[in-house]
Amino acid sequence: MTRRQPRTLSVSLDDRARIPFAVIGALLLVTSVMVVGILESREAPDVDADRAAAMDRTETAAQSELRGIVVDATQQAAAQPMTTSSVDGLEGLSEDAVFERYLELLIYLGAQESLSNAGQSVGDAETTVSLEGEVPDDPAAAFDDADDLVTVAERDDGDGLLDVTLERVTITLEDGDAVVDERTLPELTVTVGTPILELQQAAREYE
Question: Where, by residue number, does the polypeptide cross the bilayer (predicted)?
Answer without folding.
Answer: 21-39
